[in-house]
From TrEMBL:
Keyword line: Membrane, Transmembrane, Transmembrane helix
Protein name from the UniProt record: Uncharacterized protein
Keyword field contains RNA-binding: no
Membrane-spanning residues: 52-75, 81-102, 132-149, 156-173, 179-198, 210-235, 255-272, 281-300, 306-325
Entry keyword Transmembrane: yes
Amino acid sequence: MIVHDKTLLDNLILIEEARSLQEAGFISKEQVTILKNELPVFKSNTNILVRLGFLILGVFLYASICGVIALLGLVDSNDHFFDICCYFFAAVGFFGAEVLAVQKYRQHGLDDAFTLGALFNLGLAIAISTEAYELIIAIFVTVVSFIMYKRYLHLLSMLVFCCSCSAILFYGLFEFGTIGKTILPFVAMIFAVGFYFFTKKLNEKTTQHYYHKGILIANSFCLVLFYLSCNYLVVRELSAMLLGNEIAPGKDIPFAYFFYAFTFVVPAVYLVQALKTKDRILLWISFLAIAFSIYTIRFYHSILPVEIALTLGGIVLFAITFFSIKKLKDKETGLTFKPDRINNSNAFLNAEALIVASTFGMKPEVKPQDSPMDFGGGGFSGGGSGGTF
């Protein structure tokens, strides 16, 4: 199913490991360069700005090809052409993604433009054909985005797959009318929990390391979906938008205490679990969830002016950071403020110097201590005699 050469995928992992060792100080930059020159790799861009630039360039290229097709359709003056033109545009995207994959382009920017453009035009084509039937659009995009990820290992396609899966759930519940819209937060929460444990188990069982990053994205998406599913602000605003419920002054939505508690308990659980398991992605998600929880309360209950609230918040964050660093800076194990082993530090530089010295037999110059016994002035082997031999 994977169109890419698996040898190149293995080489990419070896180079990533070599870069980690270089950052840790185990090997030099020249050794990494030699390894990169010896191993064939993909045409890719690790710099996000360069990749974004090629993405914009790819969008222009894609749009120009689609523009030529549209002009040919105008010349033909077929009234039905515009009903199916997006299918041609999507086909251009699929063909371009396949050609670029064969030419060893991966995470380059150009391949992103054609892959995402194909998914966008396919969704637009299905929308035109079905008169914007959201559920059918979500089903088609879900299937095709999963195929694109499996074939090209395109991580953004996995993100599209997760979003479209959620859209299937939402629009599927909308089909049940008021009942489906009412139970939507709880169903979304259960769906996020089930999908989270499924992806976690799948990541443990998967032997093909090529899919680990994509599964990790799906797993992290479940954590975000779980929090947003019962966030008070999200539930209240969706209740007003989907059900048309007007919240009168002094009134609140049903199960308001549950949603309030959920809004603050879940970020705290995320934070504790992240610190316990040393999961950096979960730690960032917990920080974002805490920030959104604070925004949720301020959205409805503005106790202080914005400038005062920001100042006090900054002081609190500074105090927490300062005392956390003071507490953790001397710890050697567990949760610590010290740098990771895979990091450039003086300890590794000193270790490298010792290894080089021991390899070449270099010893430090030591000045011999003066003998306390004063011998005579023998010239050759007199051992203290005054004359010469």
